[in-house]
């Protein structure tokens, strides 16, 4: 039976703005308060989805969230009509209003951790929504994320869904941004690679000093248990705390893996040799041949990696066994990074081609190609059981492009977030979107 890695990209929401909410994310903080262009952001994301579909890759779409999140503001003591809640929050606690308007759910690499059926004890694809409790504006996402994923992967014979882990610091979980799977074929048993920034209960693990380590070892272990993963099919590795302090807030900012290949920076991990040996040994036991491509610090510094998002790229398998790397334009603009990529592809190694995409609107808020997609390995039967409304096709691309053109603003500033009309625009757009994607009622305003 054939199997696929399907990339479900996050559709950028109508309230895409630069709130500078993510401490530790250099791009997010440095572009704070600038005016954004939600329409351009959504169209840039859709263009990437369409391009990958046209290249022959399986592609899906994951819907954005309702914003501003008026229900979250009510839980914080703001009352009255929806318009009054927004007005009060704007006057009394503008940072909370900005947080409630965040379109950060576009980066669906943080939506959940996914384990394919070939790895799990019950032979189903397992999803655990990420609690994202390190940042308030992201911690409010997981209830809607769970409903959207449930509507996309509804067949209980093939799919299992788990609630987010307890929303406490000890179980900080950032989803697939710190999770990679290695395998010979997507439908065969593989090795799941969990990267953590700190341990909640074991002080033998060093921690960063400047920026928070968002993923804990204990959260990763809990997800592995929930998914029924075998010990011999799991590897845990610690992210280098020094690179976290340089703005590497997730592992997918410093490493990316696919198939049997790990593409990583020399300074990405602690105890790198031990980790590589464990990955190689465990993958060999299931018939795989683990390979790694290390980018030396002498060629690309950590600062280069953070500014260009070289590693927040998509590493895709082509039919001839070679790899294609999808990178943002910022890689081309960085002389050292681009020189390295040219030498990498000309060497005739594992990564043979690089394609560049304009994702400036997302990049300015700290999210590149890898942030925008959630990878789900599916066999033919499981793919047929996915809600067909969320699988990208040429007609769906046309419908979503027209939908964005109809509903999205082309400029959004912090002042615009105080406009109650923005909430009505968002709800109108999302109500129509659920019909386009055949999701049913997944948003609070549709349910309550």
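-> sequence recovered:
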């Amino acid at each position: 039976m054939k199997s696929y890695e399907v990339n479900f990209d996050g559709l950028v929401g109508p309230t895409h703005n630069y709130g500078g909410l993510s401490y530790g994310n250099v791009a997010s903080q440095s572009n704070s308060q600038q005016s954004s262009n939600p329409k351009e952001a959504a169209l840039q994301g859709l263009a990437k989805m369409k391009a990958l579909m046209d290249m022959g890759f399986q592609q899906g779409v994951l819907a954005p969230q309702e914003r501003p999140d008026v229900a979250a503001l009510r839980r914080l003591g703001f009352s009255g009509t929806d318009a009054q809640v927004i007005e009060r929050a704007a006057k009394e606690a503008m940072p909370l209003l900005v947080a409630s308007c965040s379109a950060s759910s576009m980066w669906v690499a943080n939506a959940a951790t996914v384990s394919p059926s070939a790895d799990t004890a019950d032979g189903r694809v397992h999803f655990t929504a990420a609690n994202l409790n390190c940042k308030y504006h992201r911690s409010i996402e997981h209830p809607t994320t769970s409903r959207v994923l449930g509507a996309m992967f509804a067949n209980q014979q093939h799919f299992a869904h788990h609630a987010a882990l307890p929303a406490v610091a000890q179980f900080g979980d950032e989803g697939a941004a710190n999770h990679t799977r290695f395998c010979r074929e997507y439908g065969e048993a593989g090795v799941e690679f969990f990267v953590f920034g700190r341990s909640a209960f074991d002080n033998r693990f060093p921690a960063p000093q400047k920026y928070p380590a968002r993923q804990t070892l204990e959260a990763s272990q809990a997800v592995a248990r929930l998914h029924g993963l075998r010990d011999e099919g799991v590897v845990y590795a610690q992210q280098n705390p020094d690179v976290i302090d340089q703005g590497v807030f997730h592992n997918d900012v410093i490493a990316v893996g696919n198939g049997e290949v790990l593409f990583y920076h020399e300074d990405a991990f602690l105890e790198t040799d031990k980790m590589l040996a464990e990955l190689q040994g465990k993958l060999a036991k299931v018939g795989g041949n683990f390979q790694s491509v290390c980018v030396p610090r002498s060629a690309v510094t950590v600062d280069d990696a953070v500014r260009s998002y070289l590693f927040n790229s998509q590493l895709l398998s082509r039919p001839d066994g070679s790899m294609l790397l999808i990178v943002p334009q910022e890689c081309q603009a960085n002389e050292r990074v681009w020189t390295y990529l040219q030498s990498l592809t000309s060497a005739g190694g594992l990564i043979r081609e690089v394609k560049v995409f304009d994702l400036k609107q997302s990049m300015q808020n700290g999210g590149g190609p890898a942030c925008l997609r959630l990878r789900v390995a599916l066999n033919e039967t499981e793919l047929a059981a996915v809600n067909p409304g969320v699988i990208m096709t040429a007609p769906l691309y046309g419908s979503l492009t027209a939908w964005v053109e109809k509903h999205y603003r082309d400029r959004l500033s912090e002042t615009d977030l105080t406009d109650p009309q923005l909430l009505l625009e968002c709800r109108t757009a999302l109500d129509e979107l659920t019909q386009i994607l055949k999701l049913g009622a997944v948003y609070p305003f549709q349910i309550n």
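The domain at 3-67+102-447 is CATH 3.75.10.20 (L-arginine/glycine Amidinotransferase; Chain A).
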